[in-house]
Amino acid sequence: MPISLQTLNTLGLTAWADALIGVSNSTELPAISQSLEEKDRFILGGGSNVVLHASQEAPLALTCVQSQLKGIVRLPAREGLSRLRCASGETWHDFVMWTLANGLGGLENLALIPGTVGAAPIQNIGAYGVEVCERIEAVHAWDFERHDHVVFPAESCQFGYRHSLFKELSFQGPWNRPRFFITAVDFVLSPATKSSPVLSYKGLSERLTELGVTEPPMPMQVAHAVISLRKEKLPDPSEVGNVGSFFKNPVVDEELARALASQNPGLPVFQQNNQTKLSAGWLIESAGMKGVQRGQVAVSANHALVLTNLGAATARDVLGLAHEIQEAVMARFGLWLEPEPQIIPPL
Ligand code: EPU
Questions:
Q1: How many Å apart are CA 69 and CA 86, to the nearest integer?
Q2: Using CA positions, which residue lies closest to atom 23 of ligand 1?
Q3: Cβ neighbours for 2, distance < 8 A, ≥ 6 positions apart
Q4: Global model pTM greater than 0.90
Q5: Does the CB atom of residue 324 touch ligand 1 within 6 A?
Q6: CA of 327 to the centre of ligand 1 (A)
Q7: Ligand 1 near 305 CB (within 6 A)
Q8: List of domains in the chain
Q9: β-bridge partners, 151
Q10: How confident is the model over 144-176, as pLDDT tens digits?
Q11: Residue 10: CB within 6 Å of ligand 1?
């Protein structure tokens, strides 16, 4: 009997797969690994960065594997910094709040991002001027090829903007034979009293002032400001199906950015990690697509980067509107937007 994945993806799309395995203890991994040898599989995290499409009649012919590994362990401190190991099945936002409640700073700008701890390094989640790779020391994974545990120091993870080695191997190799299953992530965090807040992102300092916080803010206060900004702009996936930003901000060379900015006054151009990025939200809005509705899918009227499921959307509706946005932005600006979520199966 096919298994429904509808409650396991935050867009709330109807999708089906042959089988689903939850890993609740890492001691189960050798047996699971043997059972999946030469079998197609897909590793599902919190389902907040996927567009799944497969009907009940033609389900995904694979086994979905989902981490239910739990636990946060303190590792020996080093050079005045705290080190934590968090299991991959923990909910990302709960982990962030745990670190803050335990007097640790460093993850506050990443509060309220949906998904699991194990998925965070895969696409190197980022928000409000911080990328998770800046706080990661190592990623622990199970290697389905060697049937063994493996540790990736952060330097070897090839972290980039919404990118990592894990994304490369899982999705740019055969998409249905991901090699690594992330079991835990090690973080390095500062004591809250010594943490340096990152407040450079537009609107964050202003929000702290509106909340009555006098600088320098404590990490928990920064988290509250981030949470209030996110709640204002981004729909809560438990209420309205969505996957956050549907497109990546285009990374372009500086010359093109300058040319586009001079032709299009107001186009936000920003530098991050030596890259020049344009605001996809602004491009979509300027191409006239903000708030557009097609069937059961809409471009959010609050944030043009977010596509929302109005209740009964199908993957075809979502991908159709996404394509229409890509065409509109291409026609207006000559840029092709790249989707941020993984489309499974790939088109
Ligand atoms: N903008 C518009 N119209 C819109 C939306 C945005 O003109 O409808 C312009 C505004 O000028 C705004 C600028 O775009 O000032 C930037 O918008 P925002 O601060 O919301 O950030 P973003 O670049 O659109 C990125 C991440 C978000 C992250 C925010 C905050 C990507 C693809 N998205 O969005 O990440 O929360 O910054 O740091 O990098 C996600 O990945 O799912 C996600 C939500």
A1: 9
A2: 279
A3: 16, 17, 18, 56, 59
A4: yes
A5: no
A6: 20
A7: yes
A8: 3-67 (3.30.43.10), 72-233 (3.30.465.10), 251-344 (3.90.78.10)
A9: 140
A10: 999 999 999 999 999 999 999 998 877 766 899
A11: no
